[in-house]
Structures are given as structure tokens and as C-alpha cells.
Model the fold of this input.
Amino acid sequence: MAMASRLMWASRAASYLKISTCPRAFSTVIKDLKYADTHEWVKVDGSSATIGITDHAQDHLGDVVYVELPEVGSSVNQGKNFGAVESVKATSDVISPVSGEVVEVNTELNGSPGLVNASPYEDGWILKVKLSNNGEVNSLMDSEQYSKFCEEEDAKH
Amino acid sequence: MALPQAIKAGLPCMNLLRMTAVPILEQLYLEERLLRSSAENWCIINHGTSLPTIVMGISGRPSELVELKPVLRDQIPVIRRFSGGGTVIIDNGTLFVSLICNKNAIPGLQPYPHPIMSWTGQLYGQVLCEFGDFHLRENDYAFNSHKFGGNAQSIIKDRWIHHTSFLWDYDARNMEYLKLPSRAPKYRSARSHVEFLCRMKDYVPSRTSFIEGTIKSLGGHFSIRPFDLDELGSLSSSLSGSTKLLTRQELEEACTSQCVAVR
Done:
């Protein structure tokens, strides 16, 4: 009973905060973001976008100890890697969900790479780009599609 | 066709590349190239490396990890590799085994650090459990609580590499080139390098028995195809990847910052 009440409270809170949860995976997905099948998120704001890795990704990677950031002014391309995240023994490529020019990187991650784990959708953002093709966003998943994608991926293994 | 061969025919192919005393920098260039430019699965085995060399992970800072004054004095090469993980000093007593796989090569294996590490632990456990009390301890291979194998990985969109430096033997004096790492596994319990490590040769009868056992263990998951270094052609050439030999100037600058930090 206590667990059911807690889950109901969590569900209502999540709805208020525009967060959806995957109870099985306990990974958070934010409703207004778009998602790539390589587990990056993008928040579009006109012709600009903010990019990071999802809660599902940070959970599977483990404690992040280093983030390799791209150079401001460099180009990123949809589906191509632009940097990497190191967690304990592994580097993992971060794939850009959109194409554009890098206008800002999150330098806080140099001293606090753990922000990617603690706050993957807010303080743990990785870069901001000026989009070169807004239409690319249409090929990404919305939050519901991404939640389902994560569940299916985890169920296969 | 006999049944065991029919079963093998259903397994993905893995190219087996055996090398002896190839310099570690060349090996790392090759691995990075195969990871990013090949679509095939690979097992690379290298017996030893020609010179004692320090190899740091992608985020390694020499000022924090290396005793720079003796390294500069003795001209020990320092490499920053493309994969994650810690710092090792390797020499002709080190045995390298690297696995490069497509993400779907092993059914049910998620291409993330922990599942890959766990799978390799089982792979090597099959080979080594008869020689000692083998464990995958956090991210190291150990007999009891003594490490003999250090691991690192790099995971890209559809492929991953898991490479291991096995301490078949090592020169304890070389450990003096390395600082005690600030980031260490809990089971290390602040032990010195010499107290923490062990030599495989004190447990395993021969390098051959370990290598042949590993190939046999891999054969349960892949159809192994011996491959010659000469067949690689352009794949064996170096590329502008992440692996980098640090210059003397970079080491001297790090040494200066190390001295300033001490003051």
C-alpha cells in the first residue's frame, strides 16, 4: 500500500513537472524534448538547440569522470560523434542529434563532470548549437516514443 | 558436416591478429583505426612491447599520474590513449589482448561499460579459474585481491573495444614512474603498486596456455579466423585519432606545474 501511494504521488508530481517516468527502468524522460536513438536529447529554441545525454544513458554509463567537449565554432552533424564521455574505464562517443555550429559548451563539466549524472537534462547540458537545418528535428523521437524505445531496448537484453 | 562445425558456421566471424613486440603506440593506432573504420570483429594479441612505456587513459594528466622528473630523466615515453581508464606502465612482460566487436555480435549483450566488462570477466574466468582464485574485482582482473589485468573500453555508435594489459611479468622498478592514483578501486585499500599487483606467470603455466585458452573461450562466441598483419594494408597506417604520444615539451610543462603544486 505504501509503495502504491508513493507511486501515485510520484506520478502526479511527474505530471505537474512535465516529467514522465519509466517505472521499470526508473529513467526520467522530459516531455518537451526530442530524442535520438543514441540516447541524446535536444531542446529546440527557435534556430538554436541545447544538447545533452539522457537519464537512461547516464544511468547505463555509470559515474562520469570526464567530458570531451567540442570547440566553439566547430560544426556538428546529425548522426556523427562530436565528443565523448568517460565513465570509469570507458569512453563513449556522444552523437549529435542535429546539425549546426557550436555556439557554447558547458565548461562547468570540466570541473564537475558528475553534473551529467546528477542533472542530465539541466545543469548537465553539454553544448548549444545554431541549427543549420530545423527540419532534422522531425526525424527525432518525442518523449513517449523515446520511453518506449528505452523499454524495448532494455527488454532485449 | 559434423555438428560442431555447423554450430561454428552460425557464429559471427572474428579476425585473430597475433603480434609480437609491436610498439604499443602502433598497436593503439591500429586498434583505433579498426574500431572506427572496420565493420568486422577483431581479437588482437600482442606479446610485449619493445620499450617500457606509460599509457594513460583519455583524460589522463601527467602531472597527476606520473613521476615526471624520473620519466624525463630516463626518457620514458608517455602516451594518452583513446580509451578510458587508468594509467599503466607496460614493458616486454606485458601481454595485450584486445577485443573489437560490433554491438550486436554477442546476443543479449548491451553495449555499455558494465555489461561488456562483466561478459569479458566470464570469458577470461573460463580460462583462468583453473589456475587461481580468479575474480573480476570492480573493473580489474585479479587472483584473490591482487590485480594482474587492467581494462579499458571505448564505445562508439555501433561498435566497442575492450582492451586489456595483462601483467604476465613486470619490473617492479618501473612502478616507481607512476604516482599512486587518486582514483582507485576500493579493493586496492591504499596498497602500494607492488602490494596490489601480481604476476600471471606465478599462476599460469605458460603464456601459450593462456592465449590458447582465450582463443578457445572466444570460439564459443565467434568463428575465429587467423589474420595476418600484412593483410591489413591501409588499415594498419596511423590516422589522426585520439591516441597521442606526449612531447617532451608537454611533459616538461607538466613537470613545472607539478613542482608549483608541491610548493
